[in-house]
Amino acid sequence: MSQELHPTADDGSLTVRRDGPILRLTLDRPSRRNALSHPMIDAFVETLTEAATDDSLRAILIRGVGDHFCAGADWVATNEASQRPRTGDLVRRIPHAAHRVIELLHSIQLPVVCAVRGWAVGLGCNLALAADFTVAASDALFWEPFLARGFSLDSGSSWLLPRLIGLTRAKQMLLLGEQVGASEAADWGLIYRAVSPADLDETAEELVGRLASGPTVAIGLAKQAIHYGQHATLSQSMTQELFNLELSCRTGDFKEGLAAFRERRAPEFRGR
User: Fold this and answer.
1) What totals of helices (H) and strands (E) does the chain contain, helices first?
2) Helix crossing, 38-51 with 98-107: angle to 10°?
3) Exposed, middle or buried by CB within 10 Å (0-12, 13-18, 19+), for 12?
4) What radius of gyration do the chain's Cα atoms show?
């Protein structure tokens, strides 16, 4: 994978770095609180699509440069009078852009960790919510400002929030536009954990390292089963689990797990 995709001075960039089995994605537009430009979103889609079929990867870590994670999509640039999009532009474009990023994060069979500092707003908030584990600095803020800006919900917020925190709290964030601090977000189950700002990087690294050393195929199948179960019956979910179990039992990591259990040692999974 390339180190940097679609960078320009004004549009920022998504920096992509391979670190062994870990794919590190960094939002690099600190002058705009890492608000996502069209090229950055396109790079996200391209990178995650490629990662989904890369058998050498075992985990993904997403973070932002500077004091903030992501201030959302750059609606200001999109709606400048000199380049206002024509009618129907959103309906044509967004399913292949911002919405596709959320779909890929949600469905990719690799564990995804987000490390959040400062603001996580709109699309930026939903990036964090679509990850499998989000760790945030204790002074971070999560905000869904769609209605405060005069337009309806976007990028999966109406699906993600009710499932994570229930309808009442979802309405509190989405209809009232209330900001939620990291500690409260962790208490609600909106994110995995809130830590001191000084401990954020170390905590995120420990977590992504732990996931990258796990049984990658089984983790991906477990992630798929959990998501499938959100819209299936108990019987349907157990049937899906059976098929996933059949696949995971054919992996080298399954054999290693059994051997480690018999030998009373920690397993050394290789992700295959």
Assistant:
1) 12, 10
2) 30
3) buried
4) 19
User: Which of 12, 121, 98 lies closest to 48 in space, CA to CA?
Assistant: 98
Separation CA 190–CA 185 (nearest Å): 5
Domains assigned to the chain: 13-213 (3.90.226.10), 216-263 (1.10.12)
Q: Which residues are within 8 A (CB) of 109 and not within 5 positions of it... i.e. 6 or more apart?
A: 52, 217, 219, 220, 221, 223, 224
Residues across the chain: 272
Distance CA 115, CA 135 (A): 5
Distance in angstroms (rounded) separating the CA atoms of residues 94 and 39: 13
Chain centre to alpha carbon of residue 41: 13
Tokens of 136: 């945030």
Residues 186, 129: contact at Cβ < 8 Å? no
What is the per-residue pLDDT across 66-105, written as a single tens digit (0 to 9) for each?
Answer: 999 999 887 655 555 556 666 555 556 665 578 899 999 9
pTM: 0.88
DSSP-assigned letter for residue 251: S
- Cα 97 versus chain centre, distance: 15
The pLDDT tens digits of the residues spanning 108-128 come to 999 999 999 999 999 999 999
How far lies 41's CA from each of 15, 71, 93, 145, 183, in Å? 12, 13, 11, 19, 29
Residue written as token pair 């499998």: 132
Which pLDDT score, from 0 to 100, does residue 3 have?
42
Q: What span, in angstroms and rounded, lies between the C-alpha atoms of 121 and 71?
A: 5
